[in-house]
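Hi P.,

Sorry for the delay on this. The queue was packed all week, but I finally got your sequence through. Input first:
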Amino acid sequence: MTELRVGLLGPSGIGATHATAIARTDGVRLVAVAGGRPETGRTAAERYGTPWFTDLDAMLADDDAALDDDTTLDVVVVCSSNDDHVRAASSALAAGVHVLVEKPLATTLADAEALVRAADEAAARGVVAALVSQRRFEAAHQHLAGLLRSGALGRVLVVSGEVLWWRPAEYFAAAPWRTAHPTGGSLINQGVHTLDLMLWLAGPAVEVRAVAGRVLHGTPAEDVTAVALRHASGAVGSLVTSTAARPGGDPRLTLVTEAGTVELVGSQVARWDVDAEPPPPDDVPAGGARPDGIGTVGHERTWQDLVGAIREHRAPAVTFHDGLEAVRVIDAVYRAAPPAPVTGENA
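Then the structure:
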């Protein structure tokens, strides 16, 4: 079967994770790299054995014929800055290229809604649009989702998430958009993974209350948020995120259902007080508490699903509609609780 040819936009950071995941996934091949600083982009392209383009438009146009006829693009993966996701994904969809977008889908609700409309229109032409939410593919989350769908756990009563991570000064210096609001805060850039899991397992949010602050790093973006949710299912949710929690720890997710209580730390089960059902098998640690600790297994599973969606002419496991629900909550948080000024000794 012919391999799907992939163009990578944004070779640094999470882009390198995707390059590794692509290399480990059957049915896809990285054939082009675009974006980033020239020296970084060219170095990455040399490492992967591909041409480098200054930006996505140049990669799609290929005016210099750097790509052969048999290596034109089938898929673009968008790993550029958060504020570039909408423009890049829209361009790829307009070109008729399948697209995989890193989280978050967008940084504003209006942009997310526009991108969902573009994806729906592209789907009618057979173009697949998928969002990266790799933690959904972890064994514990898949197991929980299956039990909830089957009714074995009854209703979700309470869902609670905690993402207390540490990001040092050099992390922010490496990419200025990480310091900006609303592109780089602890909710939209780190907590969004756990938020997505909460919405996936307990249903969309219908009420949002929050506080957000800049307690340590002194950037326009918040480094701590506390969010209270009411889900359409009736469940009550809470989520705390931070990039100021030295030294950082694995994210926590607690689910209280009619059948009992489950607590996950990272991808591992820390508590399984559900007598009627066995716990899931152990899985590969997810990482993420530190930028250099992010694993590739979830991304490999994301790529496997994308290949299946394209080959089988079906929707991917994580759609732009899923990403819209997360952005809807994030937008409500930032409107209700813009990051408060730095106080105390950090002022």
